[in-house]
Amino acid sequence: MTLRIQVSSSSAGTPVAYTFSSNPKMYDSKDELNAVAMPVLHGSTIYQKRAWDDRPRVLKWESNDVGSIYISGLVTYFRSIEGQIRYFNFRDINSINYRWPVAGTWKKARIVNIRTSLRPGGILRYDYVEIWISPEQ
Questions:
Q1: Which residues constitute the domain of residue 18?
Q2: CA 2 to chain centre
Q3: Model-level pTM?
Q4: Judging by DSSP bridges, how do beta strands 85-89 and 6-8 pair with one another?
Q5: Is residue 126 situated within a structural domain?
Q6: CA 66 to chain centre
């Protein structure tokens, strides 16, 4: 059984404000090292790891009916809190936890953006829905 991602406005996780009806189909985990290339005048480039990894992570759902209660509830909720900070419990999606800059069950993140794209023709369907979140200190 897959455990669903939970969202709360409290770092303790209570009360849970929203539980995803379905986990994302794709997740951009930013699995590569967060390093900045620094050129050297007479030598090889050096790479310095950044002190804080604030790169946005993207949760993505594909091919859902616009009228589906699962996806419409998700879009409505996240549009209402866009730009705000929330705490996420990613549950059993371990790849999200690997590169998140802070340990713990509840991850602090800002909801950066909600992007949707409609599929042309036929029944109104989202081609994709993306929620962009960025780790916060």
A1: 6-28+53-135
A2: 18
A3: 0.83
A4: antiparallel
A5: yes
A6: 21
Residue pLDDT, tens place only, 69-82: 889 999 999 999 99
CA angle 45, 49, 51 (to 5 degrees): 145
CB 126 within 8 A of CB 64: yes
Query: pLDDT at position 128, please?
Result: 93
- Residue 115 in any domain: the answer is yes
Please state, in angstroms and rounded to a whole number, the distance separating the CA atoms of residues 85 and 107: 10
Coil/strand/helix, residue 111? strand
Of the candidates 60, 66, 73, the residue with the CA atom closest to the CA atom of residue 114: 60
How buried is 86 (Cβ within 10 angstroms: 0-12 exposed, 13-18 middle, 19+ buried)? Answer: buried
pLDDT band at 130 (very low <50, low <70, confident <90, very high): very high
Residues 117 and 26: their CA atoms lie apart, in Å, by 15
Angle at the Cα of 49 (from 38 to 115), degrees rounded to 5? Answer: 100
Q: Return phi, psi of residue 28, to 5°.
A: -90, 105
